[in-house]
Specification:
single chain; Nucleotidyltransferase, domain 5; 2 domains; 5-stranded mixed sheet; 13 strands
Length: 330
């Protein structure tokens, strides 16, 4: 028999909150979304979290009394053990917010689990997505930044200070000459391989070399807003030389990052998620080729490298997985 228990998973983003009821086997009911609007302050944010949870239960036709536990995933720096969002850059002016305690109080003391959003996405993919057949997995999320999560033996690696699995801040270049990262330091993977970095590197290339490229029109039109990572990958697929060089370099950087994780945790699978997976199989093949070139031979030959399958649902499904783990441990 399956696990019929009901959990609510809530994924809090800087722009949108997404929530759904998920059963104990990882099957999700229809999800709902609400605007986060963090500028209204954290009390309003907590109220929106509660409303998202209520609407998710209603969408699933489940009474809140029948929900076993709630899982909440949030971005930014946090203290998972104490249940604190510390100072999240995408949720300003929220600061030192005790998420599980407040959400639990809103629902009559119901158990509430708390997790980093990238860790939650990794748990979601591990539970019912691209990693479901493995015992260990590393997730890279490729978007505005580079996030990630590491799952070993079914447990997400939180680290001693809640910051395990910060894959985007692996150093792939010397800090005295590396690209500047959003964290304020130089040489981080995120500064090279995020969607934001792909656009920045393309812009720099177009401004500094004379190689013909159809991307120049995008650079000079509409203040360059059309120069997106999607447009760059599309141009590469169409044969644009500048775009192809940028995409090849991005696969190289991600291959270096994956090689470092292979040497560190030797996972069974490495999964890539986020908007850049729309680049398709050729990009993934290029990452694989760089892993085989730079990683330790024996594990590199055996690791599975693939794209994620859950899309934006991974976060709330992983949040529900944390709620299930909390209930199982009770």
């Amino acid at each position: 028999m399956g696990d019929a228990r009901k959990f609510v998973g809530l994924d809090v983003g800087g722009t949108t909150m997404k929530a759904a009821v998920v059963d104990g086997d990882g099957r999700a009911a229809p999800a709902i979304s609400l605007p986060t609007r963090p500028e209204r302050g954290q009390d309003a944010g907590l109220a929106t979290m509660a409303e998202a949870i209520r609407r998710a239960a209603a969408a699933a036709g489940v009474a809140l009394d029948d929900v076993t536990a709630i899982g909440v995933a949030t971005p930014g720096m946090m203290d998972i053990e104490r249940g604190l969002i510390l100072d999240p850059p995408n949720l300003k002016p929220w600061r030192n917010l005790e998420v599980p305690r407040h959400v639990s109080a809103m629902f009559g003391g119901k158990p509430v689990a708390f997790q980093n959003d990238a860790n939650a996405a990794a748990l979601g993919e591990f539970w019912v997505g691209a990693g479901r057949e493995f015992a260990s997995m590393v997730l890279f999320t490729l978007g505005t930044g580079v996030g990630g999560g590491i799952v070993l033996g079914g447990q997400v690696l939180e680290g001693a200070h809640s910051h395990g699995g910060e894959i985007g801040h692996l150093r792939i270049e010397l800090p005295d000459r590396g690209r500047l990262c959003g964290c304020g330091r130089r040489g981080c993977l995120e500064a090279y391989a995020s969607a934001t970095a792909v656009v920045a590197r393309t812009r720099e290339t177009l401004e500094n070399v004379a190689t013909p490229s159809g991307l120049r029109q995008l650079l000079h039109a509409d203040d360059g807003r059309g120069l997106t990572s999607e447009a760059i990958f599309d141009a590469a697929a169409a044969g644009d030389a500048v775009a192809q060089r940028v995409v090849a370099d991005t696969a190289f950087y991600l291959g270096l990052g994956a090689s470092a994780l292979i040497a560190t945790v030797d996972p069974e699978a490495i999964v890539f998620a986020g908007g850049m997976v729309a680049a398709g199989p050729p990009f993934l093949d290029a990452i694989r080729a760089n892993v085989h070139r730079y990683a330790l031979d024996y594990p590199a030959e055996r690791v599975t490298i693939r794209y994620a399958t859950l899309g934006s649902d991974a976060g709330f499904i992983g949040a529900a997985a944390t709620a299930k783990a909390l209930a199982d441990a009770a």
